[in-house]
């Protein structure tokens, strides 16, 4: 068994000397330590990554240093905001949107009256969901809020910080109808680009639009491009929604335009508002809530209609799962041909 032995007897003042070990155990990382010394409790937990294991070890030692029992057997009297803070220090602070999520969770706790975490009832949270629904909060946002609080309870239970089950485990997310998938035709693309060229005073929006249409990238990803991300006929996107970097080739003509623009301006400024104004000016109507994202849908839709491979499209778009990409599969040419050949109107009446 591969293992890494870590001795930090003097790294945290006040913690008794102990043999603290993080071991590789199959495809998991095992934390095995005595935070209060050999005479105290033994802590053993498994994690998917070494980084998670190290964070948990640090969290347990920090709790002991502060005089807190990391896994008390007494009735848990900590309030919801305290649990949120513990989750944030152990897990949430390492998430890309951790700070934003923590603020959202604190707002939820305040609305609920900040009860003790162990006393929160499913009915309390469903009342919160109903209130938000009445005030026009989207179903997706409501599901996100449920997911955020579930994540707090589930994680704290998994590391032994709480000894009771997640009180929200039986609440089902709201079932959301699949949104209408809108995309631009070739004529609409030409019209939109001409409208931007003729009416927009923003120096970036036309090129940003072209890059989105040529790569399927999100508007924010394209706005974040720097000259160092443009090389060898490709544009590279970093800090993406999935956390993975990806590179997409573009035509020589577009590559030269991007390179020239970034040499002159160094970076793209925030231009989404300028795009929305140009979209309104064009008269192109889209489903509610869609604006620049229609460019990403347009790339993916035309990619599939022109015979593209769904797995290649997944990589280009940066989807973590091909199931997300599958919503474009019905646009593949074979689907259209089958619709013509196999529909019942082909029968001889």
Can you walk through the features of this model?
This protein has three domains: 3-50 and 61-65; 80-158; 186-338, hpI Integrase, Chain A (Orthogonal Bundle), CATH 1.10.443. The protein has helices at 50-65, 80-90, 98-111, 122-134, 139-158, 186-199, 205-215, 219-223, 252-265, 272-282, 293-305, 310-317, 322-325, 333-342; strands at 3-6, 20-25, 28-33, 43-47, 230-231, 234-237, 246-249. The strands form two sheets. A four-stranded antiparallel β-sheet has the order 1-2-3-4, covered by helices on one side. The protein has a three-stranded antiparallel β-sheet with strand order 5-6-7, covered by helices on one side. 47% of the residues lie in helices and 9% in strands. α2 (80-90) packs across α5 and α7 (205-215) packs parallel to α11 (293-305). It is α+β, with helices and mostly antiparallel strands and 349 residues long.
What's the CATH H-level homologous superfamily of the largest domain?
Answer: Intergrase catalytic core
**Percent helix among the residues?**
40-55%
Class per helix and strand makeup: alpha+beta
Secondary-structure element pattern, one letter each: EEEEHHHHHHHHEEEHHHHHH
Provide the number of structural domains: 3
Task: Report the top-level CATH class of the largest domain.
Answer: Mainly Alpha
* Alpha carbon gyration radius: 26 Å
Shape: globular
Sheet with most strands: strand arrangement: 1-2-3-4
β-strand percent reads 5-15%
Return the average pLDDT rounded to an integer: 85
CATH topology call of the largest domain = hpI Integrase, Chain A
Q: Sheet bearing the most strands, described?
A: 4 strands, antiparallel
Low-confidence stretches: 1-19
Distance N terminus to C terminus? 73 Å
